[in-house]
Amino acid sequence: MGGATVLKLIAQRIALGVLLLLAVSVLIFAGTQILPGDVAQSILGQAATPQALENLRRELGLNDPAYIRYFRWLFGILQGDLGTALSNNRDIASALSGRLANTLFLAACAAVVSVPLAILLGLLAVRYRNGIIDKAISGFALASTSLPEFFIGYLLILVFAVKLQWFPASSTVYDSMGFLQRLQAVVLPASALTLVVLAHMMRMTRAAVLNVMQSAYIETAELKGLGPLKIIRRHAFPNAIAPIINVVMLNLAFLVVGVVVVEVIFVYPGMGQYLVDHVSKRDVPVVQAVGLIFAAVYITLNMVADIAAILANPRLRHPK
Description:
Blueprint: H1 2-33, H2 39-44, H3 50-60, H4 66-78, H5 92-127, H6 132-146, H7 149-163, H8 179-185, H9 187-213, H10 216-223, H11 228-239, H12 241-257, H13 260-265, H14 271-279, H15 284-312, H16 314-317
Helix pairs in contact: 1-15, 5-6, 5-9, 5-12, 6-9, 7-9, 9-11, 9-12, 10-11, 12-15, 14-15
Protein name: ABC transporter permease
Subcellular location: Cell membrane
Main location: membrane
């Protein structure tokens, strides 16, 4: 009975994620279609003749009704065809493959540092709650949350690239670079992303564990003589894992889709930089493709968080 309930909930989350992604694809397509200006005019320039503009519109299918263009675009994506960039006539999928890998590498580096550190700081804040350590960690979290990511990025460049000259100001990576060289190149942008997401995960970890610490079985464990660290490690943290997983997944999603500002600041050749470059050129197919990939990553990670929370809930796995 419990297994059937869990499978049903997981199937519902997956179906909801697919429907949500479909709805987002409609919004992305509609949003790019109502942008001011003429795509054909932006490609050929102001000196283009009316006949040349009409020929290009016919070639690109711009004269077709919007719903036909949407389904043509959607079916192409389902077949792995993201379209062709209008600005340089390159295949978008091939251009994005390397960019996506760079963005995922940057996000992974930030996640490897931020997730364990946030959980550790959250548990330390619980262990020494209302003490100097708790107040210091909370103060750091408040300061980190208050600073926008572009300010953190420029501050890191000023201190570690300009003053100390430990790391390069621009994070240039290329295919032939070794792993250690890539790590050195992404230290500053990864640090900026870590500082952006660290505070939120730490505060949510602290809140989730403190909420569990109010339970009756925690008081029983204290009466049995268990130490604070053992209580947190063996009883409080495992029972607070579901909300912690949710907030970690949300921040992992941000590390992938929220990198636009950081990539622009550090001139990092990832998805965000690619998107900004082509927005300025009004390259609609690129904007649609990148927007849909960002949406798919965000929805997928949220769906994984929901499924993990379901699997971590003992009341669903072992119903009475």
